Model the fold of this input.
Amino acid sequence: MKNIYSNILKIDDKNISKAIKNLKKNATIGIPTETVYGLAGNAYSEVAVKKIYQLKKRPLKNPLIIHYHNIKDMKKDADINTNFIKLYLNFCPGPLTFVLNKKKNSKVNNLATSNLKTIAVRFPRHRVIRKVLRQLKFPLAIPSANISGGISPVSAFDVEKEFGKKIKLILNGGTSRIGIESTVIDLTKKIKILRPGAVNLRKIEEIINSKVFYSKNNKKISSPGLLRKHYSPGIPMKLNKKVSEKNSAFIIFGKNYKKTKHTFNLSKNSNLKEAAKNLYKYFRKIKEKGYKKINVVKIPNKDIGIAINDRLKRASY
Ligand code: TXA
Ligand code: MG
Done:
């Protein structure tokens, strides 16, 4: 239901049409994906792409991920290869983003790809965004719907807090199922994971039957967006803590910590998927409650825990 204070729209045919109409007019909208909520605009339009950078206050050198409904559309903009096909067949639509060589005659706006020769592409799984993409004749440039450097939104209400009335509308597709951004894999040279996510390295190695590495050079612009400080609640954060001082927020995991009014348990049952889903939700809650400091316990560094630790490290930098 739309109330007069909000531009959050429930999902029905009328509102999906409204979203599509706005995208065709090169407006930007908030849209759900299974990872986090995004700020979407026509990837072929300089007007739309510029709006995205401006709204997010994002440095122009940090390229956007281009979102497609299917391979057929995507092939017009990027060169595919065998590894891409294998991974696509296994994980897509889903939380995996591919860096590929951009086609010379691609219509994707050059600002969206920061004038690079490469392009990041993704096929999101959430039914709402798939419904929207299916009805468009252009792909969508969609970064996470937060001011650059801040916490990614995992609900329509989070997006509203970030941009309010500055965007036309936000489609309310519920809480993001995964809660952490897609895995970004570079397939253009030596295969590298640029950003860990829900699809992990082991699974990828199995599918392509070759060794895959994590990109180490976060300082350089191998993935321009992977600037070290990121995903930040803007409060000092200390990692691998066993105890927390009195008035700090304490992010815990599992059953080994005493519950107090300052504890935020990512998963009582030590379930890493549940922890990923709660991570940004708690960051936001802790920030809103006005805490001055956050302590975080050690999180197991396996499966999606690797992505959680990557975000914690950047948030604490
Ligand atoms: O899960 C997600 O991927 C979400 C949802 C909304 O789809 N999107 C997202 O977008 O996280 P964003 O803009 O917050 O992060 C995109 C990341 C950045 O780290 C950026 O540097 C990297 O992808 N990237 C984009 N194009 C690239 C390229 N050509 N080469 C290397 N990295 C690239
Ligand atoms: Mg982001």
